[in-house]
TrEMBL record:
PANTHER family: PEPTIDYL-PROLYL CIS-TRANS ISOMERASE B-RELATED, PEPTIDYL-PROLYL CIS-TRANS ISOMERASE-RELATED. The lineage of its organism: Bacteria, Bacillati, Actinomycetota, Actinomycetes, Kitasatosporales. This is Peptidyl-prolyl cis-trans isomerase B (Cyclophilin B). It comes from Actinacidiphila alni. The keyword Isomerase applies. Keywords: Isomerase. The keyword Isomerase applies.
Length: 285
């Protein structure tokens, strides 16, 4: 029997996935509009390989059913978790001077890493340093891409644009536009999808706290530059490439960011903390 807490988590996860699917649809409309503008004005519209954490595809009918279920049987815990709260003080510092990258590439970079070596992806953020141990052996294309982008300064001065605090617990970064629809212009293949075990009856696996994984559009092999950092065990579909692990010090930084809440009061929005990646590097140890 499904408990109230399990149902709450399921509804929160489905809401998260529906929002992502709507963002995919908005991006497609935007892409069509930009193509028309480009044809008329004869200008180049810079495209990006959009990537964000998405999941199951919900039809409008299923969305209505879920919304009706939420309206008909709101639990005390669900009501409390979605009630707007006062904005917490910003725990982060002022961002370093600089502008986010607008660079784009047509194709995935050629393999240039040592798959047997250890690499560290270090995010120097306004909220503190977050070192990430990369798994080059199991996710070589992903690690190679991140090293390429970091070496080009692609992540520098970009905001972490999304914080989810209800049902799943992630901070999403890697989009220089800060809107959730940007990327490097190319996509990379999914990797390492079986490392977290077999999916349960709900079609999810647990992404443990400290996991760093690729975001995507909900379709295979649509990862670009966006990624999410898990600060608390989170149930998600096994569709997002796990490619790194955050240490205890980095998790403290994430916990501080999450503690400041997000902008909507609904559990999914821009972080209240001013999370900017001043500098991102990938180093070989």
């Amino acid at each position: 029997m499904v408990t109230k807490d399990q149902r709450r988590r399921q509804l929160a996860r489905e809401k998260f996935e529906r929002q992502q699917q709507r963002r995919v649809q908005m991006r497609r409309k935007s892409r069509t509009r930009n193509s028309v503008i480009a044809a008329v004005l004869a200008v180049v519209v810079i495209g990006g390989g959009t990537a964000w954490a998405a999941g199951a595809f919900d039809s409008s009918d299923s969305k209505k059913k879920d919304d009706a279920a939420n309206a008909a049987t709101p639990s005390a815990s669900a009501s409390a978790s979605t009630s707007p709260t006062a904005k917490a003080p910003d725990p982060c510092n002022k961002a370093a001077a600089g502008k986010p990258s607008t660079a784009q590439w047509k194709t995935e970079p050629k393999m240039a890493i040592d798959k047997s070596a250890k690499y560290t992806f270090t995010l120097q953020t306004t909220c503190g340093s977050i070192p990430i141990a990369l798994d080059a052996a199991k996710a070589p294309d992903t690690v190679n891409s991140f090293k390429f982008l970091a070496d080009k300064g692609f992540f520098d001065h970009s905001k972490c644009h999304r914080l989810v605090t209800n049902g799943i617990y992630v901070l999403q970064c890697g989009d220089p536009t800060g809107q959730g629809n940007g990327g490097p212009g190319y996509t990379i293949p999914d990797e390492n999808l079986t490392s977290l075990g077999k999916a349960d009856a709900q079609g999810t696996v647990t992404y443990p706290a400290g996991t760093v994984a690729m975001a995507n559009t909900g379709q295979p092999h649509t990862g670009g530059s966006q990624f999410f950092l898990v600060y608390k065990d989170s149930p998600l579909a096994p569709s997002y490439t796990p490619f790194g692990t955050i240490d205890a010090a980095g998790l403290k930084v994430l916990t501080k960011i999450a503690g400041a809440g997000e902008s909507t009061g609904q559990g999914d929005g821009a972080p209240n903390a001013t999370v900017v990646i001043d500098k991102a590097t990938v180093s070989k140890s």
